[in-house]
Specification:
about 280 residues; alpha+beta; about 30% helix
Length: about 280
């Protein structure tokens, strides 16, 4: 009787062990598929939510997530279609804010400025008395973005969301958003050819520069004069007033073709600047 009881109880023992093994295996697989834990997701939300960044490219408004791959690239056609449909959410140098962080499949969704229905608020336009008015690129000031959108870090080549810190995710977003709060001028200079960047830093104007580069280098002109000759339109930007040095910067088709320095006397007459003698 005891032997038969043991035989009858044996299968139950093995069945329970098998169930435990299967359950444990299922839990392990589930944890592996999760990629990042709930705690890690909470840390990412804390590290990214409400963070401010500066747009390094024009970012369209969009209801659907605009994908950004881990190498910082994105589909220009998809972004272009969103731009044509809804316009820009942020221009170069605009300040944006991450207002919501969500996780969906292989994507980390980042709501910008409260999404497509959000954007600049009334307090973003308030100016403190005594500060300079205007927010032009040449002044090196950042403006709040005019709209909102939805971005997504898309890990399409991964099996699941990889384990990343908030700092690491910001680095992945760096080609699109600068979280170091640099000025719009600094961001723009990164896109300028070295020869023009050096001229701007030295407050000089050279041939080949465009109007924005000239504004960054010398500011807005004292006056502007347009002229037509042989069917070509040129525009002179004139800096300075007599007495003193007068600079004439001539544009054709939006590019500087000539820079002329003269010195004006009290009567308004100008003379050629004398060359600096060689030592």
């Amino acid at each position: 009787m005891k032997i038969e009881a043991i035989k009858r109880g044996a299968p139950r023992f093995y069945d329970k062990s098998l169930v435990r093994v299967v359950v444990c295996a299922a839990i392990s697989v589930s944890l592996l598929q999760a990629g990042i834990s709930a705690r890690e997701r909470q840390e990412l939300v804390r590290g990214l939510n409400a963070e401010y960044g500066t747009a390094k490219v024009i970012i369209p408004r969009s209801k659907k997530p605009l994908d950004i791959l881990p190498d910082g690239t994105f589909d220009p056609e998809a972004w272009g279609d969103a731009m044509m449909e809804s316009g820009p959410a942020a221009r170069l140098g605009d300040i944006v804010q991450i207002t919501k962080v969500e996780f969906k499949g292989k994507r980390i969704l980042l709501q910008i400025n409260n999404g497509i229905s959000g954007g600049r608020k009334w307090w973003h336009r308030v100016q403190v008395s005594g500060t300079s008015s205007g927010t032009t690129l040449g002044q090196g000031q950042n403006t709040h973005a005019p709209g909102g959108t939805l971005l997504a870090l898309y890990f399409k080549d991964e099996k699941e969301l990889p384990q990343k810190t908030a700092v690491e995710l910001k680095e992945l977003l760096d080609p699109v958003l600068d979280f170091n709060q640099r000025s719009a001028t600094e961001i723009y200079l990164d896109t300028v050819e070295p020869v023009y960047k050096e001229a701007i830093e030295q407050k000089e104007v050279i041939e080949g520069m465009d109007r924005e580069m000239t504004r960054l280098s010398m500011g807005m002109p004292t006056r502007r004069v347009r002229d037509f000759e042989d069917g070509n339109e040129t525009e002179d930007w004139i800096y300075g007033k007599p007495p003193g040095e007068i600079v004439f910067v001539t544009f054709e088709n939006g590019k500087v073709i000539n820079v002329k320095y003269e010195h004006a006397n009290l009567g308004g007459q100008t003379r050629e600047r004398e060359p600096i003698p060689e030592n």
